[in-house]
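Colleagues,

For the teaching module next term, I've prepared a clean inverse folding example: a structure given as tokens, and then the sequence designed for it. I'd like students to try predicting residues themselves before seeing the answer, so please don't circulate the second half yet.
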């Protein structure tokens, strides 16, 4: 991981520095699974859709565990729970706009996903479809912007 000079001076273990890239990979996998699940249900392949969407949920749970671990470890080793985007970077306004929308919507994804899965579990297909139409685009946006944020924060 490439950090600004202040991060390079700190003694942060490699496993902590590896977590943002792992999170980006997990978000990418979630994106692919979500899109696959969407295409499967459009083709009326319900059993495959179920497996793929549950996989997307599982990957998202692993992502959340890695994300929280990274921020807790960063706080432990640096006193700050996050890496700051450079003030002088010309991409900062765009970064902050994407970050804000990502954070607000990311807070809703676990609740929406659980409600959507629960309605499918109960075979309440009308309510499942209804909430899935809200959950899917939000979850997809959050997984895509998670990768965008990673690249902006660590590779710009």
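(Answer key — instructors only)
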């Amino acid at each position: 991981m490439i950090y600004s000079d202040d991060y390079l001076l700190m003694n942060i273990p490699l496993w902590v520095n590896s977590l943002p890239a792992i999170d980006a990979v997990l978000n990418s996998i979630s994106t692919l699974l979500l899109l696959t699940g969407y295409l499967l249900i459009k083709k009326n392949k319900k059993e495959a859709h179920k497996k793929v969407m549950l996989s997307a949920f599982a990957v998202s749970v692993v992502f959340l565990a890695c994300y929280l671990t990274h921020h807790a470890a960063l706080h432990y080793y640096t006193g700050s729970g996050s890496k700051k985007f450079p003030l002088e970077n010309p991409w900062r306004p765009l970064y902050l706009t994407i970050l804000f929308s990502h954070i607000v919507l990311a807070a809703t994804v676990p609740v929406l996903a659980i409600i959507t899965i629960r309605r499918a579990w109960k075979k309440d297909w009308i309510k499942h479809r209804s909430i899935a139409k809200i959950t899917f685009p939000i979850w997809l946006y959050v997984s895509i912007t998670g990768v965008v944020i990673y690249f902006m924060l660590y590779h710009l």
